[in-house]
Amino acid sequence: MTPTVDVMDIPQVTLGAINIEAADPRALGAFWAAVTGGTPAPSGDFVYLPPAAPGGFAMFFQPLTGPRPDRLTIHLDLTVPWGTRSAEVERLVSAGATWRWDVLDEHPHVQWTTLADPEGNLFCVAEHPPQA
Questions:
Q1: Alpha carbon 26 to chain centroid, angstroms
Q2: For this UniProt entry, which segments traverse the membrane (predicted)?
């Protein structure tokens, strides 16, 4: 028998902000503002980028505290409407991203392009086909 879960027992966890250490927090904050449509709020060496719209996500950029790792073990997956990935990738490359690779036929439920931000942090732009 499956135990009943009371909604009050489920943690009410939400994403407060994605924190990124950067060689140049202001420049990287400006790039991500172009990605998300948010307005950066610099304060000293730090930049806060609030969500651009309800349901969006915040980002916080701070100076590097040590050497950048050779390989990151986490990255962002951004989702765009079906049929708009190519145009969005072009927009992001013109804003300063670097194209790394496309994955277009590995999985039937998603296609994505992997990009790097101006400091080399990888992120993906994915689109899912409409449900039949």
A1: 17
A2: none
Pick from 72, 71, 62, 122: nearest CA to 92: 122
The pTM is what?
Answer: 0.84
Q: How far is residue 6's CA from residue 24's CA, in Å, rounded to a whole number?
A: 46
Looking at the chain, the number of H-run helices and the number of E-run strands are 2, 8
Provide the pLDDT for residue 1.
65
SS3 114: strand
Report helix angle 85-95 to 25-36, nearest 10.
150
